[in-house]
Design brief:
Elements (H helix, E strand, L loop, with lengths): L8 E4 L4 H11 L6 E5 L5 E5 L7 E5 L6 H16 L4 E6 L18 H12 L3 E5 L14 E4 L2 H11 L4 E5 L5 H11 L2 E11 L2 E8 L6 E9 L3 H12 L4 E9 L5 H6 L5 E5 L11 E4 L2 H13 L10
Parallel strand pairs: 1-4, 4-5, 5-6, 6-7, 8-9, 8-11, 11-12, 12-13, 13-14
Antiparallel strand pairs: 2-3, 9-10
Helix pairs in contact: 1-8, 2-3
């Protein structure tokens, strides 16, 4: 078999270049060359500056808004397909548009399903992602999906804190499964926040199910957007007698006034991954890299070996 069929290449979409460089370094290679030409009206065209014919390639890019990030991934996939790449894995650390995973009211789109179809049509033969907003999104794809969990990188950090009287918390009912999974490995209790919303990103009321008095609380969630839920949950738990409140959130969207809201909240710290680059340096926000996790799984995909031992949840 020709050598170029055995050696994979890793390329980066512009929004995820920093993470892709870390992944490539951990994988033991360098990023491939991509040039993006831009037109004055905002249109852009990515081009591979080296041959990908017959190779397995990985294209790294999170698809958080704006829509240009998704569009860049689609164009990269299409370019790779037309350049005769053998296998094309879309490595999407943060799968954007995932909150639209069902029709929650009449006459709305199922955006996550639409994005899945677009990625496959563009040329992805495999999808690799982490902490989907809803597990069932995997079923929107007809191609293999490697769904990784940030618990692999977060749990070692939490254990290194050596906290006594630990309790895991979910900021809403939907995240209770994730909270129970973390509590299993940390051998801790679980509490749940029950919240009611006036509209998206606006909480009208929050209650706590469970006791946090005298506890060090770890809130776990798949993403943090405006930070309103976590700030309100931390305030409520401190009022109920918690010793400290920390949060683990995989995807740091952090829109609007989120950075200021976190810094001014009663959270001791917010631990996030680097699936989305941080816009600001804030003392309460700590980033833990997922690069090694992705590189390890990419090696196993290349070698056609099992990745099940990478999962903690």
């Amino acid at each position: 078999m020709p050598t170029n069929q055995l050696t994979p290449k890793i390329f980066a979409c512009s929004q995820s270049t920093e993470l892709a460089e870390k992944i490539a370094k951990s994988f033991g290679t360098e990023l491939g060359n991509v040039k993006i030409s831009r037109f004055s009206d905002g249109e852009f065209q990515p081009a591979f500056e080296e041959s990908v014919r017959g190779r397995r390639i990985f294209i790294v890019g999170s698809t958080f808004p704006n829509a240009d990030n998704l569009m860049e991934m689609l164009l990269m996939l299409d370019a790779a397909k037309r350049a005769s790449a053998r296998h094309i894995t879309a490595v999407i650390p943060y799968f954007g548009w995932a909150r639209q995973d069902r029709k929650d009211k009449p006459r709305v789109a199922i955006g996550a399903k639409l994005v899945a179809k677009l990625l496959e049509e563009a040329g992805a033969t495999r999808i690799m992602t982490m902490d989907l907003h809803a597990d069932q999104i995997q079923g929107f794809f007809e191609k293999p999906v490697d769904h990784l969990y940030a618990s692999s990188i977060f749990l070692p950090y939490v254990k290194s804190l050596k906290l006594d009287n630990l309790t895991v918390a979910s900021p809403d009912m939907g995240g209770s499964k994730r909270a129970y999974a973390y509590s299993k490995y940390l051998e801790s209790d679980v509490v749940i926040c029950y919240k009611q919303r006036k509209k998206a990103n606006v909480i009208s009321h929050m209650e706590l199910i469970g006791d946090v008095k005298g506890k060090n609380v770890i809130l776990v969630d798949d993403m943090i957007d405006t930070g309103g839920t976590l700030a309100k949950a931390a305030d409520l738990m401190m009022e109920r007698g918690a010793i400290s409140v920390r949060a683990l959130c995989t995807h740091p969207i952090l829109s609007g006034e989120a950075y200021e809201r976190i810094q001014n909240s009663k959270l001791t710290e917010l631990i996030v991954s680097d699936t989305i680059p941080l816009k600001k340096n804030v003392s309460k926000i700590k980033s833990v890299s997922c690069a090694t996790l992705f590189a390890d799984v990419m090696h196993k995909v290349q070698d056609n070996t099992s990745i099940s031992d990478e999962f903690l949840m």
